[in-house]
């Protein structure tokens, strides 16, 4: 009788596990080690301020590159450097083992993947084993694309790669870190694939952090930038109030940085002109993270909060403030310009 009960329990457990796995939108696969040895040919699409610097670091690391961008002048620059350039994303895919995209928005990413001559327009048969999207987009789009990629098959199977796979791997650090190769990658997808891609990512950055399943890299990026925006607003508000009450921003900054108010916005990216050298506020808010990009990221955070019904009042306030900054003509200035253009803060030398 005891043996019969154990058999019945075993059948029920196997049935439960089978049902659980099949109901997941991302089919679980047995853990296996993926090799990165076949990542010889790297395609890169999106050669803007961030993408061009990331691609340059891959070139320095010795990867064979194939690139594409809508900007003809950028394409000519890479062609003159001896880098293979292609007119469409699909042509990049044909020449690549792995394709990295770094694009402005979800709509651009969807067009590069699914549009005419897109990365997935080769039908079900694809050449690249791996797709990495480093754009800052909404998690829902990242997850849908991961499913689309996994539903394709490889033209040629190598090592343990049976189907093409995708990682969402947005970055933190901005243009300066992209130039220096010190970006932090926030990676969503299969952990086995993340481990295989890690050396490739570390050719462009100093950190690669696994965040969980598909879309979780995009989640991490949105939450990181949300916290950064709110932190900058809080610091700017405190510094501007301090100025109005008669204390200098440099004095307040010294106090903040040696007490509980210390944060990245105060000790590494101070928004007050004249307090810190080498940051956008010291050069009229140029050369940093544009306010229009912060507004875009806050729009993504706000939409995600509404979708899951999460209370996020500071998200929506920050969204309103940065939208106002952009509408007032400061969309290309660094997001720390909120100190001057929203709070009417003064430079330290004034």
Overview of the structural elements:
It is an enzyme of class 1 (oxidoreductase). Keywords: Branched-chain amino acid catabolism, Mitochondrion, NAD, Oxidoreductase, Transit peptide. InterPro entries: 3-OH-isobutyrate_DH-rel_CS (IPR002204), 6-PGluconate_DH-like_C_sf (IPR008927), 6PGD_dom2 (IPR013328), 6PGDH_NADP-bd (IPR006115), HIBADH (IPR011548), HIBADH-like_NADP-bd (IPR029154), NAD(P)-bd_dom_sf (IPR036291). Its EC number is 1.1.1.31. GO terms for molecular function: 3-hydroxyisobutyrate dehydrogenase activity; NAD binding; NADP binding. Helices cover 49% and strands 13% of the residues. α2 runs parallel beside α7 and α9 packs across α12. The N terminus is likely disordered. It is built from 14 helices and eleven strands. The protein folds into two domains: 174 residues, NAD(P)-binding Rossmann-like Domain (Rossmann fold), CATH 3.40.50; 123 residues, Orthogonal Bundle (N-(1-d-carboxylethyl)-l-norvaline Dehydrogenase, domain 2), CATH 1.10.1040.10. With 350 residues, it is α/β, with parallel strands linked by helices. The strands form three sheets. Strands 3-2-1-4-6-8 form a six-stranded parallel β-sheet, sandwiched between helices. The protein has a three-stranded mixed β-sheet with strand order 9-10-11. It has a two-stranded parallel sheet with strand order 5-7.
């Amino acid at each position: 009788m005891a043996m019969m009960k154990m058999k019945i329990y075993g059948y029920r457990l196997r049935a439960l596990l089978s049902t659980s796995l099949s109901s997941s939108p991302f089919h679980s696969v047995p853990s296996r080690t993926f090799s990165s040895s076949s990542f010889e040919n790297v395609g890169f699409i999106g050669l803007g301020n961030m993408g061009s610097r990331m691609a340059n670091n891959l070139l320095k690391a010795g990867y064979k590159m194939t690139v594409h961008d809508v900007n003809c002048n950028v394409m000519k620059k890479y062609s003159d450097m001896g880098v293979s350039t292609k007119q469409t994303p699909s042509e990049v895919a044909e020449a690549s083992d792995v394709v990295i995209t770094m694009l402005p928005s979800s709509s651009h990413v969807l067009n590069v993947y699914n549009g005419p001559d897109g990365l997935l327009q080769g039908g079900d048969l694809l050449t690249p084993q791996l797709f990495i999207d480093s754009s800052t987009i909404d998690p829902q789009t990242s997850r849908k694309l991961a499913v689309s990629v996994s539903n394709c098959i490889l033209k040629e199977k190598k090592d343990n790669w049976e189907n093409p796979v995708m990682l969402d791997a947005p970055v933190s650090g901005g243009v300066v870190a992209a130039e220096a190769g010190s970006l932090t990658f926030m990676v969503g997808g299969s952990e086995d694939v993340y481990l295989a891609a890690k050396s490739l990512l570390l050719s462009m950055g100093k950190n690669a952090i696994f965040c969980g399943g598909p879309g979780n890299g995009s989640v991490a990026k949105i939450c990181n930038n949300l916290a950064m925006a709110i932190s900058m607003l809080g610091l700017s508000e405190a510094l501007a109030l301090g100025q109005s009450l008669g204390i200098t921003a440099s004095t307040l900054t010294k106090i903040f940085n040696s007490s509980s108010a210390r944060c990245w916005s105060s000790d590494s990216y101070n928004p007050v002109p004249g307090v810190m050298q080498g940051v956008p506020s010291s050069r009229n808010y140029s050369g940093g993270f544009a306010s229009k990009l912060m507004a875009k990221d806050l729009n993504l955070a706000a939409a995600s909060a509404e979708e899951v019904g999460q209370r996020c009042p500071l998200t929506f306030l920050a969204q309103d403030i940065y939208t106002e900054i952009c509408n007032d003509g400061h969309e290309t200035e660094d997001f720390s310009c909120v100190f001057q253009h929203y709070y009417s803060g003064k430079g330290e030398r004034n």
